[in-house]
Amino acid sequence: MKFASSAKFAAVALTAALALTACGGGNSSSGGSAGPVDGKGKKLSVLTGVNAQYSAQQKQWFTDIAAKFKAQTGADVEFETFASANDELTRIQTSVVSGQGPDVYSLGTTFTPTAYATKAFVTLSDDDWKKLGGKDKFNQAALGISGPDAQHQAGIPFVSRPFVMAYNKDILAAAGIDKPASSWDELAAQAKKMTNPTTGTFGLATGYKDNFDPWKFIWAMSVQAGNPLVDGKTLKLDDPTVKKAYDTYFGWLTKDKVVDPASIGWSNSNAVAAFASGKAGYLLMTTSSSLPTLEKSAVAGKYAYATMPTTAPGQTSPQGDAANAASILSGDNVVVADYSKQKDLAFAYINLITSKDEQLNFQKIFGDLPANAEALKSLDNPALKPVADTAAKSKATPFTGAWGDIQLALLNVVVQSIPDLSKGSVDDSSLQARLKDAQTKGQASLDRASK
Amino acid sequence: MSTDSLTAGKASRRKSSHAAKPGPQSPENAPRRRKGLSERNRPLWMLIPGGLLMVIIIVVPLLLGIFMSGLDLDQYSLRKWVSAPFIGVQNFVEALTASPLLHAIWLSVSYSLLAMVVTIPLGIAGAVATQNAFKGRAVIRSIFLIPYVLPSFVVATVWRTMFQPGSVIDSALHSVGIDPGLWLNGPQSFWTLILVQIWASWPFVYLLALSGLQSVDHEVHEASALDGALWWNKLRYVVFPYLKGPLALAFLIGMLHHINNFTLPFVLFGVPAPSDVELLPILTYVTSFQSFRFGLSAAMAFISLILIAIPLFVYLRAVKLDDSETPGGKK
Question: ipTM > 0.85?
């Protein structure tokens, strides 16, 4: 019996292996010598993130864009999706090692430095940019995280997703606040006015257990205070500005008491839900993709987006470049795999999806802002105005392969502080110890990057 | 996984040697072929497909992993990973001295052991309680198995939702005047993990204990009844000796399973994990897929392999001992 089943298994595995080889063969043979736009009989493979919020629309978009691409070049496009950043990473690692896989990848902006460090993606030459319709076609701010410098860029901006805050106009008005805060201190003061534990209303909604939000706050407040976090080969997490940022961020819960105590277990979606139910004055660290959710919620018509504060805690006006650090430079880049045998076809595809019309169409369906400069200018939805403004005031996170580790270290400080947060106060010395640990780990990673 | 395939291999080998005995009578054996080969050797070629698969699926990756543990392999050298600089045992030195590996091993082993110590009595109790026929026994037995058939991911997601601050468990405890504190972070998270692990894995012990109980001959029950043994004495001196073998196996397999369990802590606590539940698989994962230190993480994985090989060795010895006896034999 055992034999039978293992023999069957062997047969299945063999078939699968054969099928795989067949696929591989098909892929490599498709790389012909035809011209850039003649892709007859070829197939371009594109890996992109799955859009759980609009999955039906995404499938439709795939079909539509594939038809347009076929009409333009005669080639087919095959879309593959990944469900999470980890999925994507695994996929990239496999492709990098084996030298075969998708031709075009879609990457989150903060992941672009890590991907760039693997050297598995095409660094675009002037010629390549021409194939995409020139560098000027893109929103110049969005190019800030395409590569380490203007001459070495691998990431082609596809969409912008800057972080903003949403506010409940009714709650702000009821507390006598006429305009949203522009400094973090003012934000806390306003939040205090709006907080009313008896009705369960809190000034701020944010998730301390989110996998990304916490480090974005720390990054923003530190950068606005003049600390870029990575200064050449030195990591500066042991700087007082970073400590101040954590104190402010934790202080909302422990000192100001302007967030729901349950938010130590929240992710971003919990915070969106709290704001959507009308229980919070501000929803921090959100993007225009929260718009469809909010439009269908109890706060529909009562909320607006605004740029998050750009004045560092303890200061009265934006210092230096702080006004231009309203958000991390966020969105998606597309990259072309270095091993791809049909790079021209890949560029033709990217040229199509970054064209003005396609970008506007994409915005309409999914809410993400265009990376195409012309398309961005032509947006006329007033609700999106503050978001589009923020897109121009976004600052790139440090472009180093170590950023993933630094981000993790910043996040880890919050994770390890959650027991203290739940008790109501974060001990100064233990916070210092955690920061020191983060500094050591992050610096070690930075040393590897600059080796 | 490796234990499964090893037992499978063993079982098939046993089966084949059985099959060899009635060989001459079986019709499909042509008389000409029978002559040239000794009876013992004949079916071994049938192991080739399985053996080949094991080589491809287990041996080759294992060797690659060991090779990787000697490389300074990270995101910068991944693309041409074979030519990444060879740094000997430096990864092992770093894993043991400059990483939380020892802490992680301590956490993994202690959590596995604690969960095992609780699940064994639970499993036995469950098996004894459903040993004698009663109305609705089949239903109860099925219910007992629910945690075992649910995917680990589902179990962890549901428990995580219940353990959220201010969620059902908190409000239930609040209503009786207890402030439970934080479940998913802080020192208590270690106990949360053990609790969920117990819930998820006790049916495994129950199953093995049940199989042990089933093998107790009817006459033995009658004899002990005739001798006037009361329930505790009967359990202690008559029934338990039968359970020794199956439970030893349950203990070892359970330990291996717990030490290797990634899904449960990953889904319950996420990464980066709170330091109280930074278990071995989580640490290896983060090192590999968040920090991209593939070499270092291969070294960690290799160290954990050695750790797991110890109970595995004991387990294989145990199976070997059982081989010569009838199943569930009293030793």
Answer: no
